[in-house]
Amino acid sequence: MPHIQVENWGLVEALEKRFKVTCFVGHDIRSLALAEHYFGASQDCEDSILVRVHRGTGAGIISNGRIFIGRNGNVGEIGHIQVDPLGERCHCGNFGCLETVAANAAIEQRVRHLLEQGYQSRLSLDECNIKAILQSANKGDTLACEVIEHVGRHLGKTIAIAINLFNPQKGG
């Protein structure tokens, strides 16, 4: 339930009781990291980091075989690491957060801006969505490739920071 404050609702307990399973309710990226730990690429690891770029950019961290959520449940918000001090204002209020570069809307906005500036591309302003941008990059479109490479450089630096901080067996 994105951006909805819910407190004192025994959902986990109700699900565990009803279905007789261990249950975890959490942020999408932490849930994905936990699923990878139990069923996917990191199931043989006690420590791993899963990074996802979508509406935002986040990391799910598994430490000692358990999901790492921290005191307030906000561990792994790598999208709010500042990568460009003179960058765009983030919805969190800071400037130049990774999410202002590496999130679907940010990628679409950057391509749209460059097209409006007159840069050549197979893309048009009418089809400036993440799917079309990625398809164009896969077909070698220079503008799409350069934007994705720009995102990749910032994302790579941030993932390197996360790996150095948490020293996982697997990351990515």
From TrEMBL:
Listed InterPro entries: ATPase_NBD, ROK, ROK_cs
Organism domain of life: Bacteria
Keywords: Carbohydrate metabolism
Keyword Membrane among UniProt keywords: no
GO biological process: regulation of DNA-templated transcription
GO terms of molecular function: DNA binding
PANTHER family (alphabetical): N-ACETYLGLUCOSAMINE REPRESSOR (PTHR18964:SF175), ROK (REPRESSOR, ORF, KINASE) FAMILY (PTHR18964)
Protein name per UniProt: Making large colonies protein
Organism: Raoultella terrigena
Top-level taxonomy: Bacteria, Pseudomonadati, Pseudomonadota, Gammaproteobacteria, Enterobacterales
This protein's encoding gene: mlc_1
